[in-house]
Amino acid sequence: MLEEGTKAPDFTIDDQDGNPVSLNDFEGQKILLWFYPKASTPG
Fold it and tell me: What is the 3-state secondary structure (H, E, C) of the chain?
């Protein structure tokens, strides 16, 4: 688990159109990363 203030590791994922988006693409900007549990799992 990341502690408050810890930088998130860089990652790349496809957007809704299938284009790759990297966390590095937003360097210098404030962003919100939202994580949620997989559907139909406890928690």
Answer: CCCCCCCCCCCEEECCCCCEEEHHHHCCCCCCCCCCCCCCCCC
End-to-end CA distance of the chain: 15
**pLDDT value, residue 43:** 62
Provide the whole-model pTM: 0.56
Bridge partners of residue 14, in order along the sequence: 20
Q: How confident is the model at residue 36 (pLDDT cuts 50, 70, 90)?
A: confident
**Given CA atoms 1, 4, 38, 28 in this order, what sign does their dihedral have?**
negative
